[in-house]
DNA sequence: ATACCTTACGTAATACGTAATAATC
DNA sequence: GATTATTACGTATTACGTAAGGTAT
């Protein structure tokens, strides 16, 4: 069970089609098929009933697990946001402006101190 | 980000030690170290502060993501339970009793018919 | 024929283990 | 020296793509 697989399954259900899910997710239809097949063999239960006439129908089991899967996807997104935010705190650019003459001697000292304070954060 | 990684991180926090988490999870300490390192490089933010004296301390970021991670793990467990339950419906053992003499000829036929009906379910 | 899913096969990524290394008590 | 985390390296798994194959309209 992979996030990609969960995302794929969720999107396939949403779109009602492997091909269109593949387009939206920017992957090959083969990858979509693999993803669903992978989940199904892992669970030993079909998730989707392939009906050529009416497109894709979600199996009983599929309906059961769809909700927890979407919860998972939401949480994953949340974690990634947290990560991005945390990174932002550390990886932001710092801009310093000054009068050329005044800070010519002061700046190096300030930068030096600042870098020392930064050292432990960098690790 | 893998479930294993999430489970490892969660357990490391719980145990306060890589080694003990490894024991509980039946994996090598190296695998535990890999798992945490993998998460940290993926996020670009440290999850744990390694303090040899006081064991493991969870970073600020780690504390933030711990909760959603545990939610994910719970949902995963839930999905697996659903799968097991759904499988149980299909994978149960069937026991057939009979008088030796009476069913000697009948049984093969019955089994044959039964297997034919089973065919579509097995796929 | 066309639209859609599946299968075969190759490849690149990676999760994990063993074993060696480093560091702290 | 004992305990614990990291690193190096090898391997087996696997996610994914390309391309070919079924199947139904």
Describe the structure.
- Two copies of one chain form a homodimer.
- By secondary structure, the first copy, chain A, is mostly helical.
- The first copy, chain A, has two domains: 3-86, Arc Repressor Mutant, subunit A, CATH 1.10.10.10; 93-123, no CATH class.
- Chain A is 72% helix and 7% strand.
- Chain A is built from six helices and two strands, in the order H-H-H-E-E-H-H-H.
- Chain A has helices spanning 3-15, 18-25, 29-43, 60-91, 100-103, 106-122, and strands at residues 48-51, 55-58.
- In chain A, strands 1-2 form a two-stranded antiparallel ribbon.
- In chain A, a hairpin with a 3-residue loop joins strand 1 (48-51) and strand 2 (55-58).
- Chain A is globular, with a radius of gyration of 25 Å.
- Chain A starts with a helix and ends with a helix.
- The model of chain A is unreliable at 91-97, 99-103 and 105-123 (pLDDT under 50).
- Chains A and B meet through helix 4 of A and helix 4 of B.
- Chain A binds a DNA duplex (25 and 25 nucleotides) through helix 3.
Query: What is the CATH class name of the largest domain in chain A?
Result: Mainly Alpha
Q: Give the integer mean of the pLDDT values of chain A.
A: 80
Instruction: Strand order, main sheet of chain A: write it out.
Output: 1-2
CATH homologous superfamily assignment of the largest domain in chain A = Winged helix-like DNA-binding domain superfamily/Winged helix DNA-binding domain
Name the structural class of chain A: mainly alpha
Instruction: Quickly give the CATH architecture of the largest domain in chain A.
Output: Orthogonal Bundle
Question: Number of folding domains of chain A?
Answer: 2
Percent strand of chain A: 5-15%
- Give the largest interface: A-B, 25 and 25 residues
| Broad shape of chain A | globular
CATH topology call of the largest domain in chain A: Arc Repressor Mutant, subunit A
DSSP, total strands of chain A: 2
Radius of gyration of chain A from CA coordinates: 25 Å
């Amino acid at each position: 069970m992979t996030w990609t697989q969960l995302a794929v399954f969720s999107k396939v259900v949403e779109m009602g089609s492997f091909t269109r899910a593949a387009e939206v997710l920017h992957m090959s239809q083969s990858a979509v098929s693999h993803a669903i097949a992978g989940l199904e063999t892992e669970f030993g239960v079909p998730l989707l009933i392939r009906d050529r006439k009416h497109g894709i129908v979600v199996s009983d089991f599929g309906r059961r697990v769809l909700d927890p899967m979407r919860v998972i996807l939401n949480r994953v997104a949340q974690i990634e946001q947290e990560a991005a935010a945390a990174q932002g705190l550390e990886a932001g650019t710092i801009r310093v402006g000054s009068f050329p003459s005044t800070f010519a001697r002061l700046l190096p000292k300030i930068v030096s101190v600042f870098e020392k304070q930064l050292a432990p954060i960098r690790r």
